[in-house]
Design brief:
alpha/beta, single chain, seven-stranded mixed sheet, Flavin_monoamine_oxidase, Amino_oxidase, 17 helices, 38% helix, Polyamine Oxidase, Chain A, domain 2, FAD/NAD(P)-binding domain
Amino acid sequence: MRLLLHLVCTLLLLSCANCIDDPGVVIIGAGAAGIAAASRLYKNGFKNLTILEAEDRIGGRVYSLKLGDSYIDLGAQWCHGEKDNVVYELVKDLNVLNDDFFVPLFYHSKRKLIDTEFTVKMTEIFETTYGNVSTDQKGPLGEYLTTRYNEATRDAWKDNEDKLALAADCLHSFRIWVEGYEAAFSWFDVAASSIYEVCEGNSALGWNGLGYKTILDVLMEKSAKSITDKVLLNHVVKQVVRSDSKVEVKCTNGASFTSDHVIWTPSLGVLKRGYKTLFTPQLSGEKVQAIQTLGMNAVLKVGLYFPTKWWNDDFRGVVFSWAASDLQKSGEAFPYGPKTGNKSWITTIICVTSVPKSPNLLLAWLAGALVPEIEKTSDETITDGVIYTLREFMGEDYPNITRPDRVIRKNWYIDPHFHGTYSFETVESRKLGRPQAEVLGEPILSDEGKPILLFAGEATNPRHHSTVHGAIESGFREADRLIELYRRF
């Protein structure tokens, strides 16, 4: 009898071990969060992995495009900070980062090139005003920053009416700059307070022409082929169906995958448009509230490749400051493409910058409420608008501004696989008390209490949302959740 009992127990243990030793995990999305989760799981013995990617490439919102001998980043651009930044920690000894901070030129629609002293001071006001918001500040960010900006400029030029008038014109530039940094269509939608934690150190570390894709290569390291072999491109997920102990993922191409766990990593923008139909059973009211109240809009980058370089080698970037009268009639001066009232979309150009290691390339950055319409605008009209703006503001100093022969962009907001660039905390989400990114990141448990549907991605990271390091942290977090689960057996 004891022998029989021993045999039964052994068989049960072996059966259980077979279930535990090779759990199936489907990761939806091969961006930074998905690759981070896959690499962490793979290194900890999880081999039954499937990664479903809607695009025809790996990377998600990390999108480094080869151009000549270097890369242009159409998505994530900089490593933001050093201390407690997982991106920096992963690459700090590889000599791949460079200091990409610079003070841009400021050009005014009437005064043209603004003097260096004013430009340096204005850049300082931009950064200190935006960077020193109290964590208990209530209301919209735009309201708070407008007050702070006016106070700072009055303090700086209280005895100089001419400079104060110029600073008043620069408020529009400041607003567009903040909306670009937040990737929000209006700075009045963004909460003034946030629990976001800035990583100390250089916040503008570029990739020295190597592209942000470098971090994906580092994440995968020696297991690159093993992980990429598990990625199925062009697989758009249409439904995630949960049962008591399994999850089935159905794709629009007819493919179907059943697994023990699913890690969802697509953007908040995708969730906003699909949460009602993507999940069966539907998500909880608390999680839906998080999806609805957190914000996700977009910033647009347009690469302009010129056959002949017309700018100086020391040119790094330019900010356009509009006189109030020119701002209001810009839609008449340049009547092509979208506009708000009589203000043209060209007034939403944050800046135009050079690109390290790409001597013939300029990058135009655009933000604000017109981004979705600008994304639908033709390359020709966008080129016309950017060149018109450069010539109007800088033509006296650069009389040989030519047209580019190639336009490179990624329309993040109208792309159904993203619907935006990165998330932000809204006034409404902050009113709810608990960080909504934390709510969004909570796993859904099976009847047995196991995490069966897990959520990762930058929008699920309360303290590092909107960043690649936040996305990677979230991927590691959910991978570790599963690793710890199976360690208990």
